[in-house]
Specification:
286 residues, mainly alpha, rod-shaped
């Protein structure tokens, strides 16, 4: 009887020693089971099921402690000759492994949540900035660079060579943009040579006449004549002198210019001859 009593006390001591770590493992797992319920992914659900199953196994072990027998776990089979300490070690190892997986998954979820919050905050700031810009006229200012770029793309490159300047000036003259025609003619004169210089001088005189600056246009026409008195442009230059003088009311000087035209170009082009006759009649030239 005395020996049996000692054996019973020893068995109870072993059971108590076994149940203490099991109770600690149960207390460690239970909060994390509740925490794992927040995970919505398939891996999280599987992990939750594994932890719940392990909790059931531990509950079975705890309930078995009172009767002196241990129930075999449903997912972990204890070795046939293993001790209760080996089973406890296996269960605790499973708990630690599942808990580590849960922590890693929770860390990934927290990182994704943090990234999403940052992106949401950045998007909200952009929307607020856009609304502020629209309320304070920033929308028009923001659209201005695009409109400027489109205008620059549509407009031709600014002319720089004498021939390009002359072409641009003649186009402006046809459009009655006499100021632009004058600017192009003046710019072309700085580098033009030969016929280009005569044409630039003639364009300058035309633009001055278009602005009704007749005194300056008469001088400019005469300069064009002097630069090439035998050229095809000379008769037109003398006609321009006559027309400017008539516009000023100086008929006498206009008739002198027409006389010079007739003496130096007795057989002018029909267009020039018709214009000379018209100016002669206006000036009352004999």
């Amino acid at each position: 009887m005395k020996r049996l009593s000692i054996t019973s006390v020893t068995a109870k001591g072993r059971m108590a020693a076994f149940c203490v770590p099991l109770l600690a493992a149960t207390a460690f797992v239970a909060p994390n089971v509740a925490h794992a319920q927040d995970v919505s992914s398939r891996e999280g659900l599987a992990l939750q099921n594994q932890i719940l199953a392990l909790k059931q196994q531990l509950d079975q072990v705890q309930s078995a402690g009172g009767s002196g027998a241990l129930a075999a776990p449903s997912t972990v089979s204890a070795p046939s000759g293993g001790s209760n300490g080996d089973l406890t070690a296996q269960l605790l190892e499973r708990v630690n492994t599942l808990e580590q997986q849960q922590r890693e998954m929770r860390g990934e979820i927290d990182q994704l949540t943090n990234d999403l919050q940052k992106q949401t905050a950045a998007l909200s700031k952009q929307v607020s900035d856009a609304q502020f810009a629209m309320q304070n006229g920033g929308g028009a200012a923001a659209a201005a660079p695009a409109a400027t770029a489109e205008t620059a793309a549509a407009s031709p490159a600014k002319a720089t060579t004498p021939d390009a300047l002359l072409a641009a000036g003649k186009t402006a003259l046809k459009q009655r943009d006499y100021t632009t025609a004058y600017d192009n003619a003046e710019a072309a004169l700085k580098n033009a040579k030969g016929n280009f210089k005569v044409d630039a001088q003639f364009l300058l005189a035309q633009s001055l006449a278009g602005q009704k600056q007749y005194r300056q246009s008469a001088v400019a026409y005469y300069d064009a004549y002097r630069q090439a008195p035998k050229s095809a442009r000379a008769p037109d230059a003398l006609l321009g002198v006559s027309a400017s003088l008539l516009a000023m009311g100086d008929k006498k000087a206009a008739c002198q210019a027409l006389g010079k035209l007739k003496s130096e170009f007795p057989t002018p082009a029909p267009r020039v001859a018709r214009a000379a006759e018209s100016y002669t009649a206006k000036g009352g030239c004999s």
